[in-house]
Design brief:
13 helices; 25 strands; Ubiquitin-like (UB roll); six-stranded mixed β-sheet; 567 residues; alpha/beta
Length: 567
Amino acid sequence: MKHRTLLHIHTPTEIRQVIVPQAQARFSLAEILRRHDLPLNTRCGERGLCDGCLVELLAGHLAPLSPSAPPLSDPQSLAPDSQPQPLRACEYAPAGADISLRIPARSMLAHRPQVVGDFDLRIPYAQDPLVPAGSAGSDLGAAIDVGTTTVVVLLVNLSDGRILARTSAFNRQMYLGDDVLTRINLCMTDSSMLARMQETIALQTILPLLDEALAIVSAGREQVRCLTIAGNTTMLHLLAGVDPSSMGVSPFTPTFLEHRRLSATDLKLPLDAQAHLLPGAAAYVGADLCAGAVASGLKYDQGPSLLVDVGTNGEILLKSGSTFLGCATAAGPAFEGAGLSCGLRAVDGAVSHCRFLSSPSDPCALQIQTIGQERGVQPQGICGSAYVDFLAQARQVGLLSPAGRFEENLHPDLTQRLVPVDGYGRAFVLVQGQGKRDIVVAETDVARLLQAKAAIAAGIRILLARAAVTPAQVSRLYLAGGFGMHMDLDSAISCGLLPGFTRAQVVLVGNSSLGGAYLALVDRGVLAEIASVGQDLHIVELNLDPEFESTYIDELFLPDPSTSTPS
C-alpha cells in the first residue's frame, strides 16, 4: 500500500475509487484522472490558465507542482458548514495514501455535447458520387466534419444520396489540448504527440462514430467505399499525420491546402475506402469554411454577402461582386466557457439562455433556460449563448455600462445580487446555488467576453471596409456553426457581436462544413467548386491591417441599446 495512492472520487453520479500506482505519483491530478477515464475540462492544455479543471479537496493532502500554485487549506481545518476550497487539478499531485476529491459537473468532459449535424443546402447538386455505387446499391460513403471540439459523421447511401445515419461526439483530442494552438504547440514541443493526435482523432473518435452509424443500419465496414472530410487546416493536418508546427509561428504556413486523396489506411482507419480531405484556403481559413461557402450558396451570390462562423477562431468570408475576402479572428475560447467563472460548453446543465423580465415589481426577475431541464437537469454553469444574452440584456436594463462594468446606481434588488469575487471586482448572481456554489457572471468574465465579441465584430468591419460596403448594404449574413444555431439573434445584434445588422439579413445555415462534405461525397463536381473558393479568396491578415487595432478597441464597448435594437 505504501507504493500507491487511493483516490476517492465523488462525481455528480457516482463515487469511484482510483488506485494510483507509484509510477504516476508525480502526475497531476488532471493527468491521473484522464488515464482512468475521468477526463476534465483541461481547456488550456494543463497550463493553469483557466478554471476548467476545478475540483474540491475533501480529505487528504496534495502537493503543488509549481511555485505559482495557490496554497491549500487543510480540509480538516474547515468549519463544518464551509465550502471546500476549489483547486485546479492540473496544478497539484497526490501527497498521501488516501485522498478524497469532488468533481463538479462543470469540470467533467463526460457530458453529452450539443452538436449541430443539420445543414441548409442552398444550391442544386447532382447525384454523381465520388465513388460510383455498385449494382447491388449497398455501397456506403461517409461525410465527416472534424471540428476542434466536436466531430459529426453522416452515413450516406451512394446510390441515391440518402442520409442513413448521423452520429456525433466530442473530438477526443480535447483530452490533450482544448484549442488549435495548444495542439500545435504540443506537436512543436513533443515529437511523439503527432502520432498520438492522429490516433486520437482517427481511432478514438471517427472510427467509433462510423461503427455506431453502421450499427444503426445493420451494415459493415466493408460496405464503406468513400470518406469526404472537412475541417480546419490544423485538424486535417493532424488527421493526415502531417506536422502542423509551421502554422504555429509566423508566417503560419501550412504543409498542404489542396485536396488530398488518400486511402483510409493512410489515416489509420481500418477500411478499404478512399479518403478525400477537402481543400482549404489558408492556415486559419480552412476546408470547413471553403466547403461552407459552397453549401450555403455564398460562392454564387452577387452579394454583398457574409459567411460568419463564430468560434474559437472566428472565421469570416465576404463576397461582393468579384471581390472575395476572408479572415480569421483570434476570438479565443470564451464563447465556449473557457476561462470564465462559471463557464461551460453547451452540454447538459449549461444555462443556454437568460432574459430579464423587466417586471416593475421585481427588477431581478430572470427567465433561465438550461440544457436538459426537461429531463430534470439542474443548472451547473453558463454556456456561450447565455453569455451573449447576458451582455445584451444586462446592458438593456442598465446593469452594465458601455465598458462592461456593473453600474453603481441600480435598483436595490439588482444591487443585492452583486457579490464580491476573488478579492476584487464584483459578480452578478445569475442562479442562486441553494447550498451549493452560486452561478455568477463576474466583471472579469464580461471583460473576456467583450474581447471575444470585439475580435469577431472588428473582423467583420475590416472586411466590409476593404470592400467599401456598409452593414446595411449586405444582402445576407450566413451564420454557420453550432454556436450560431443556438444563439439568440436579437442578443447577438444588440451586444454588437453582429454590428449594425438586422434579423432580416441573417440566414442560419447550420453545419455548413458538414453540408459541403456531403455535397462533395454525392456530387464529384463540387470538389472543384470548393477548391476554387480557396484559390479566389484573398486572405486579410488582421494583425497587419492598420485599422484593425482601433476598430477592435471601438468594438470592446457595448452599444447604446437605443441604437442597436434589432429589427
